[in-house]
Design brief:
42% of the residues are buried. This protein has a single domain, classed as Rossmann fold. The strands form 2 sheets. It has an 8-stranded parallel beta sheet, covered by helices on one side. It starts with a strand and ends with a strand. β2, α2 and β3 form a beta-alpha-beta unit. The protein is globular. Helix content is 30%, strand content 18%. α1 crosses α2. It is α/β, with parallel strands linked by helices. It is built from 7 helices and 11 strands. The longest helix is centred in the N-terminal third of the chain and has 18 residues. Fructose -6-phosphate binds next to loops.
């Protein structure tokens, strides 16, 4: 795991954008894995700014999002489908038909999960997966205890995750109880992973990720088994780390 320490959220977003843009510009065809939440919003804004200023094209890019709430349609303002359009897709030239997000309204949710993994496979897999991290170590919506072998599946969200996400809803009661998430096995199949973390609330998680043991009790720890992971995290998120040998600036 390569760990890049940056000053703050803004620098994390800029460094992550440069990283991703270098891959997008170099390739004729690239499949990105994308996350939602607060962490990648700055990255997406940087990509939009770059698209407007430098005209970087996404015509050759396809994407798969990590997760979606069950019960929300794609145009619900709190759906991740809506988030992606608002925060990125509507502002760059990626063909919408190249973008994939699991449907939280599918009649056959198990079938939707299986079809999602098959679709990723049929597109040749994910070249670069962007991840945030939950304070309990979740990646996607893979909560503590999730099997490292899990494919895309349905999860019941923990109270702490529902609380963390309640900031986007009018009340915690409105936060859906279940979601579809790419599984840990699905995430690990990505050729390369870029995990972003910023701020005080991620301190414990970053310490466990870098210094803790690999355990299903802390899902992100599995990333230590992947051969191509880069973490870009800010000083605040890394404040509890003792093992500064890993850091490059
Ligand atoms: C989002 C996702 C989640 C978030 C995590 C951190 O698609 O899969 O794992 O990355 O909950 O969320 P933020 O970035 O809001 O702190």
């Amino acid at each position: 795991m390569k760990l890049i320490e940056v000053k703050d959220y803004q620098e994390m977003s800029r460094v992550a954008a440069d990283y991703l843009l270098s891959k997008v510009k170099k390739s004729n065809k690239i499949t990105l894995g994308l996350a939602t939440g607060g962490t990648p919003q700055g990255l997406y804004q940087e990509l939009i700014n770059d698209h407007q200023e430098n005209k970087t094209s996404y015509q050759h890019v396809s994407s798969f999002n990590l997760d979606e709430y069950i019960g929300l349609s794609g145009n619900h303002p709190n759906s991740y489908c809506h988030y992606m359009k608002e925060n990125l897709f509507n502002h760059i030239d990626i063909p919408l038909e190249n973008t994939h997000i699991p449907s939280g309204k599918a009649a056959d949710l198990d079938g939707e999960c299986q079809a999602y993994d098959e679709k990723i496979h049929s597109e040749g897999g994910i070249d670069l997966q962007v991840l945030g991290i939950g304070s309990n170590g979740h990646i996607g919506f893979n909560e503590p205890g999730t099997s490292f072998d899990s494919p895309t599946h349905i999860v019941e969200l923990t109270p702490s995750t529902r609380e963390a996400n309640a900031r986007y809803f009018d009340s915690i009661e409105e936060v859906p109880s279940h979601a579809i998430t790419m599984g840990i096995a699905s995430i690990l199949k990505s050729k390369e992973i870029l995990l972003l973390a910023s701020g005080h609330s991620k301190q414990d998680a970053m310490k466990k990720l870098v210094e803790g043991k690999i355990s299903e009790d802390f899902p992100a720890s599995v990333l230590n088994r992947h051969s191509n992971v880069t973490v870009i995290a800010d000083e605040e998120a890394l404040a509890l780390l003792k093992n500064h040998k890993l850091l490059t600036r």
